[in-house]
Amino acid sequence: xxxxxxxxxxxxxxxxxxxxxxxxxxxxxxxxxxxxxxxxxxxxxxxxxxxxxxxxxxxxxxxxxxxxxxxxxxxxxxxxxxxxxxxxxxxxxxxxxxxxxxxxxxxxxxxxxxxxxxxxxxxxxxxxxxxxxxxxxxxxxxxxxxxxxxxxxxxxxxxxxxxxxxxxxxxxxxxxxxxxxxxxxxxxxxxxxxxxxxxxxxxxxxxxxxxxxxxxxxxxxxxxxxxxxxxxxxxxxxxxxxxxxxxxxxxxxxxxxxxxxxxxxxxxxxxxxxxxxxxxxxxxxxxxxxxxxxxxxxxxxxxxxxxxxxxxxxxxxxxxxxxxxxxxxxxxxxxxxxxxxxxxxxxxxxxxxxxxxxxxxxxxxxxxxxxxxxxxxxxxxxxxxxxxxxxxxxxxxxxxxxxxxxxxxxxxxxxxxxxxxxxxxxxxxxxxxxxxxxxxxxxxxxxxxxxxxxxxxxxxxxxxxxxxxxxxxxxxxxxxxxxxxxxxxxxxxxxxxxxxxxxxxxxxxxxxxxxxxxxxxxxxxxxxxxxxxxxxxxxxxxxxxxxxxxxxxxxxxxxxxxxxxxxxxxxxxxxxxxxxxxxxxxxxxxxxxxxxxxxxxxxxxxxxxxxxxxxxxxxxxxxxxxxxxxxxxxxxxxxxxxxxxxxxxxxxxxxxxxxxxxxxxxxxxxxxxxxxxxxxxxxxxxxxxxxxxxxxxxxxxxxxxxxxxxxxxxxxxxxxxxxxxxxxxxxxxxxxxxxxxxxxxxxxxxxxxxxxxxxxxxxxxxxxxxxxxxxxxxxxxxxxxxxxxxxxxxxxxxxxxxxxxxxxxxxxxxxxxxxxxxxxxxxxxxxxxxxxxxxxxxxxxxxxxxxxxxxxxxxxxxxxxxxxxxxxxxxxxxxxxxxxxxxxxxxxxxxxxxxxxxxxxxxxxxxxxxxxxxxxxxxxxxxxxxxxx
Length: 933
Hints:
By secondary structure, this protein is of the alpha+beta class. 35% of the residues lie in helices and 17% in strands. The longest helix has 28 residues, at 232-259.
């Protein structure tokens, strides 16, 4: 089989084990020798090792740290890619943060404040003179300097003019992530396959994002114009910053092209010739930044959707139980406002949003069996017509239309009242997956009106998006409140006209045709297809159905649709030391961000929280869970379809808080009465793993950076099912003596594991084998079996399947079927753990608040429930490791540790080693400010 370099993918990992046959060892050496003759980037740059002074505006006292694996350097020349693939060598700073990050899983138990930077890196402003690795004046400019430190290679950008500062930010971003930035601007435009190759996963990726944001060039430019014109002086400054940033990117493109140290992926994908240097790397333009922002917003900051799936499961419940009881059953599984759910704002304050109305108005539920998903892809040829390609399309559609968004990231913030120093402490960061190169990059920016260090998404790093300022730090988690509604537009004339306020109106057809051919990077055979979306004033068409016999199209309207660029103002404010000076000004800044995020803040005295997003004010009586008729009476209040603007809930109505004793967030429910769009906010949520640990720390007092980091790290290796649900399952089983030897042996192993802490950790650092491996295997095999046996008999197959579409059964670390896929680190966000918990407690006769409408395990009888648990446990215990962990392109069948392991998914030519599973932020800060301005 021919050997290939990696295909460029996001949602599927494709790490090759071979090279093309024509790149044998001898020819590799010859080729590398030839490729080393052009100037390397380091040789081409001005690298005079002048001293860099530490910034005087740093109030963290050396107590700010951060980490972002695998490393800062995400660019590699062709020679470096070939060396990596052939011999495993790494470019400088490509992997030097992976080891410390990985080691925390086995080293956290003995962590002290003095050892924090064994696992993190110093995030102080500036670079000590003896730690300067290089100093560059990009483009020969005298108004900006990029200093990189020896330890991590992070750029510290200092400008004397605003233009120069942003120019330097763009230049540094391109130095570190040019190829990745290019990939994602093409993803945002629905043009990944012509650029990077026709791998089935590339097809699925561009389809997933283009379905939800099918923007034309005019749409992208309109976003820029609107963000600029609607925000006064800050809007004009943002435009100037973006232009300077683009200039810096393009300056690096030109320099690396002429110096021949551009990313080698351009050669491997056929855009550049390694011998003649023929070919072009396209310059960036402003609309590329909006295309990039649309991808990031869709990935991490657009809560809502899923109303059609909700309607299907409601109809299934009503068909099974009748309308009244079926609705009651459905609501009990939906858990809109579960009284046992863990909350971020836990002081009892209520923030009603998207609550269930007393009498729903305008509902447009589909006729049973009438729903059909809108076709996106047409005219498939070649490799676009293969089974793998059509399967990728199905997966992409499911991901884009589900309410189970990639809600990731966590935060632990403790008030100074509970810390040893009296200063607040925060351990927080975004959980954005693991890629090579990483989606995020690190930087420090110091210039007129800007003073910050931290992480930004590649290609959007004109400002630090998550990080620290002079005397404060901030971070975010995905919140997932509902800013997406589904409308039923009644069709007229034909399938491509609809009634808008009584007038038959034509839908707008948007098309994108893509074609590809094999390259060295991606040998997928030639193919092509056409993507087609029909847009209405109520958003893109996603489904077709009938409602009461009338033909309708279901559309999705998102409040951030056509407004991804607007959030630039909030990020600009966060970087401005003259704007953010207090918890209140921090909250004011993030109110300008329309992505659905939970924002956290800490300085030397205060902590704060705010939930951002443009929450539309819905018409009275609208139930946001279900589709509604596209009629004026049911539209968002003051909605203008020309601009997609409306009335939004005021800042005070968003969950917010200052100086609560502590905050935790792991994409859990924000506050009482505040409904999240995704299912699963019940009695057991991964947020409980943080809540239980932090609450205990705060009660004891004397919290330190080390103890709070240990709490995070301990939760990061915990199995949520084993910690919070398994003890109750064992209680049922042990309600009488277990006489079956197979079941008894399994119970013994599971009990031992629970007693040991229910962790998925190695026997010793680097052993690549789990302690309590048999117990872990048994639970991984048992969970889907027990859930099915517990609930399907009572619910019936149709309803059980429908609810499983709303909320996946399981998301263990090795599960490739969850929303995050395999090897992604993030686990236990979506699953039926709350349902099992509530049902089992009911069977045991224990008190349950907000319980399910009926008892399911064994029909509610303890003995019958016990029989079900034992029979499924025996079946699970009999499954071999190879059956439970069937293997993939990374791992042999039966390799449990590898099945769980975190992989830096290749988005370019450099690959990294697997690390032991951790469920924690990708970029993470540990901060404790000692003083304030």
